[in-house]
Amino acid sequence: MIAVTFLMWGGFFLVIPLITVHFVGELGWAAASVGLVLGVRQLVQQGLTVFGGAWADRVGPKPLILSGCLIRTLGFAGMAFADSFAGLLAASLLAGVGGGFFDAPKSAAITAVTRPEHRTRMFSLVSVAGNLGMVTGPLIGAALVTVGFRTAALASASTYVVAFALLAATLPHTRPGVASGRGLAGLWAAARDRRFRRFTLVLIGYFLLSTQINVAVTLKAISLAGPGATGPLYGLSAGLAVLLQYPLLRFTERRVRTRVALVAAVLTVGLSLGLMGLAVTFGQLLACVALYSLGTMIVYPTQQTLTARLAPPGVTGSYFGFSAISLGVGGALGNVLGGSLTDMGTRLGLPLLPWLTLMAVGGVTALGLRWALQEVPGREVAEGART
């Protein structure tokens, strides 16, 4: 799972930043139209992830993960030949469907094969592997874009073929648990869980912010340093995560309560985006991206661990699926809002407009998380209850 996560993230970030570079920077499309394509992909993927988790509770994660790899291969290969908005949108939808098949089942598979006390570290290691892919992917993409966007998109698609082969040979087929045969009952249980519902809905604000690395931040980097800026941009963000995420998370686990750490991390992400509006050199922007990365590297493993902690036995996949609502809605809104605010700020002569708006969203989200997490058990409570 760690190796496959590296391949998936590497393939994804090999091509996704180049969509903005190619269609906006090279072909002159409106940033809002490309943001809409990226947002629709995100919404479709996370919408299907909601049901993908429930299906994993019934049939096991492996068949869904393998199917998702093949479908995403077709989607990214389709992007290589897209020459119109409709073609790009169709390929993006296909890529989103593939992601919807493997997102929640992948997390459910990790949960199934790890002990509760090891899950935070395991999710952190998986995230480190993903960020290593996030370092490698854009660097390869930046090299391939000189050959052409089509070559880069086909290279991206090929990584999912390798992931399929590796998973087919090595991933154990974990059997459905006690929720087998209960249809969408697991999703219904997650939706009725007041604590988990609040947690999921408030996180929409965070995921609106986290997608800006693909839209507003990328556009800012291009404006300051040209199309080649995407490599250093993603390389710094992911490289810091590879080096610091695991030790930072271990330090945080020992010294800071989970709720406090999550709220502080979201505040850090919002503040860093606000500061990006003041950056007038590429170096200043990279400094803000470093601060942004410190926040994001805490949020993912913490959110995944809390989801696994709150899920009753047998419906883990359904809970991970339901949690995708926050990423789906937040990611879609973030992609559309990032492109639209950038266009609006340029049109109105207000370059700080997108950045101040994003910083405000971060503040509101942090306050919302503080409220939503009041009734979520801390690590020591949850582990004590199990023993």
TrEMBL record:
It is a multi-pass membrane protein. Its main location: membrane. InterPro entries: MFS (IPR011701), MFS_dom (IPR020846), MFS_trans_sf (IPR036259), MFS_Transporters (IPR050171). CDD domains: MFS_MdtH_MDR_like. Keywords: Cell membrane, Membrane, Transmembrane, Transmembrane helix, Transport. Residues 1-380 form the Major facilitator superfamily (MFS) profile domain. The chain crosses the membrane at residues 6-24, 76-102, 123-145, 151-172, 199-219, 231-249, 261-294, 319-338, 350-373. Pfam families: MFS_1. This is MFS transporter. The lineage of its organism: Bacteria, Thermotogati, Deinococcota, Deinococci, Deinococcales.
